[in-house]
Amino acid sequence: MRKSLLAVAALMGVAALPQRAEAVAFRVAEDISGNMGFRGQIWGQVLGERTSGNKGAVDFRLNNVRLYANGNVGKYMFFGANLDFEPGTARASDAFIGIRFQDEFRVQAGLFRTPFSRAALTDSYTFLVPTGYFYSGTPVPGGYYRAGVSFEVDAPLRGPSRYRNLGLAIWGELGGKDVPFKYYLGVFDGPYNNSVGAPGSDNLMFSARVQFTPTTLGFKGERGYGLRDTQLGRQNVLSFGLGYTTQKCQPVLTGLCSAGTSFTTSAFTIDAKHEQRFGKNLIAGWEAAYFDVKDVNTAKDDRRGFYVQVSAINDQRIGVGKAGIAIKYDYAEQNPATGAKSKLTRIGGAVNYFLKGQDALLQLAVDRVEPNFTARNNNPNNKKFTDLTLAFQVQF
User: Fold this and answer.
1) Do 244 and 90 contact (CB within 8 A), yes or no?
2) What does R_g of the chain's alpha carbons equal in angstroms?
3) DSSP letters of 149-198?
4) How far apart are CA 132 and CA 144, in angstroms?
5) CA 305 → CA 8, 195, 204, 352, distances in Å?
């Protein structure tokens, strides 16, 4: 199975599936119960001109369709799975089994989101800007990013972690019911996993994250493995996070490690999130993160960047729903060991119309992308462009 990397620096997302009151509940036995549900995102996009001679396009996109299940078996065991569908394909995006000894100590194993950054742990069904992090406007052949999920220049130049990985994580919530501290420790196959059918060494990827909330100031920590882009006024949030991940790549892995060479990729991130209700109807927030990735290939190129997002929601109905707005700015660069750097900037924004929170949501987004591929040998997709996205979302 081909291991397509979603790079660390794009700041990767949630393993544990949130239990929703609107989901279809099931009970197999007295101590075996859970929830099942459906999620869907359909996009219509007006894509700007990317290459000389191309006049843009109007495209429709099945961004995601998902069936999910989660629950408990007995007093200690829990499980979860996401089955995602694309035209002609279906895949298990998440599938894990865990043991909850207590809130402070849980262990889960399987395929799930890597505990590194806030963006990695944020469910895309809670995005306030539907195009996500580091949007590049797919489809862009040879593009710098893949819309919102990866930080790649091209296939051989990848970071130390995919968005999701197979492995094992220990995590917990510390400090009482308001959860001032949360920690994650993980060990995974990672992107440089080497099978016994190929020469070279196999090295595991290690990941760690800690998160702090100043509960003495009246804020509550974000419970559960995953995170949300907005709490929609259910609680005030102020969280600070630190993440680190690393893995060594040794020969020979085609396209990653050349014969006779090896490198160790490592990444660091720091992030913050603040969302608060002001008065009766205004829910306002901001989010920011910085990342730094060292030695992403045999040439030992580095990557770094940051993003900032601000948002506001009017928590009263206008017509049949509630309205909100969000603006996001992304900047990322690759610094090669020799030669000029490549970079990308994006400023995007969205108007959100919540018919039933994020269970029934309409979003209209605009993204302005400015690539600069000075190190990419006259890349033909080096034009500034603007995309317009109309997103429909339902979930239960």
Assistant:
1) no
2) 21
3) TEE-SSTTS--S--SEEEEEEEEEEESSTT--EEEEEEEE--TT---TTS
4) 15
5) 11, 33, 25, 27
| 281-335 tens-digit pLDDT | 999 999 999 988 888 777 787 888 899 999 999 999 999 999 999 999 998 887 7
Side chain identity at 300, as an amino acid letter?
K
DSSP code for 229: S
Joined together, the tokens standing for residue 23 give 């989901």
How many CB atoms sit inside 10 A of residue 338's CB?
A: 7
Structure token pair of residue 194: 């080497």
What is the model's pTM?
A: 0.86
Nearest by Cα to 287 from 112, 144, 132: 132
Strands 282-294 and 181-188: unpaired
In tens, the pLDDT along 131-177 reads: 988 887 643 333 232 222 233 333 222 333 357 889 999 999 999 88
